[in-house]
User: Which sequence fits this backbone?
């Protein structure tokens, strides 16, 4: 089976300073990979490279032919804490922007609008369609950005900490939704919520300067120790945070 995405010996960084070294990872159809790691470990950097927003220092990312940037881009839900709430844009416009890459010949404007409307209804946020994003709660923001990520019906859905600033109710709903979506999409999920990750994802990638892949979702202390991937929970501000100590490389 050919992977949807093949990451080969990828080194990434900023201003010629590497932050991630020689990463190897393959993402297959219907994978559900949980990405964990400490603050500044390089999780978002890796996602940026997969999205084509950061050029590799070395190595490469190979996409399967049908992962086409124009027609089926990768769906991406960015970290909402990085979104400027003062930017004057409505819920509808944010979701609509998820189709910005779609070529007009393939799908009409009316079809895109219809899909936006359908997603807003499906996510239960149709009533706030004309609100400015600055007026939304954390849970509403996440719903909006999830609709945006799904607009192009992508083969691969990438979510960067979608459980930040959401209430317990929506968190449960979100993970159930992801479980449904995973029936036809590969999902890459960055989260600090190790407990939740272990009950939903199929495999785990630990990112801390390097990437270590664990081909199952069991992340008990014992298991992590045996993987040489010790992890403990600490509190970092409001958000429980994972810290990984040193790793040993394993393919
Ligand atoms: N635009 C940038 N320019 C320079 N350095 C950056 C830039 N973005 C990130 N970095 C640095 O790269 C390293 C990895 O950051 P990254 O945001 O990928 O980590 P992360 O694992 O996603 O962390 P967090 O859990 O806090 O989101 C950090 O040392 C960070 O300071």
Assistant:
């Amino acid at each position: 089976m050919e992977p949807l995405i093949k990451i080969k010996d990828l080194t990434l960084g900023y201003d010629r300073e590497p932050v991630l070294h020689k990463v190897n990872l393959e993402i297959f159809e219907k994978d559900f990979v949980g990405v964990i790691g400490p603050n500044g470990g390089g999780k978002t950097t890796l996602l940026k490279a997969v999205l084509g927003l950061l050029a590799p220092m070395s190595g490469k990312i190979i996409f399967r032919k049908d992962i086409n940037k124009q027609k089926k881009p990768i769906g991406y839900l960015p970290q909402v804490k990085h979104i400027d709430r003062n930017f004057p844009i409505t819920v509808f416009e944010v979701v609509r922007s998820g189709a910005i890459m779609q070529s007009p010949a393939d799908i009409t404007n009316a079809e895109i609008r219809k899909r936006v409307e359908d997603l807003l209804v499906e996510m239960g946020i149709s009533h706030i369609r004309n609100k400015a994003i600055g007026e939304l709660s954390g849970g509403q923001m996440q719903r909006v950005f999830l609709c945006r990520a799904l607009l192009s019906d992508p083969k691969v859905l990438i979510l960067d900490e979608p459980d930040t600033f959401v209430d317990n109710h929506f968190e449960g709903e979100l993970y159930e939704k992801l479980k449904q979506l995973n029936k036809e999409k590969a999902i890459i999920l960055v989260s600090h919520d190790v407990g939740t990750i272990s009950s939903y994802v199929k495999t785990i990638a630990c990112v801390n300067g390097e990437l270590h892949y664990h081909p199952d979702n069991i992340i008990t202390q014992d298991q992590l120790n045996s993987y040489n991937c010790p992890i403990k929970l600490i509190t970092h501000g409001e958000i429980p945070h994972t810290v990984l100590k040193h790793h040993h490389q394993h393919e």
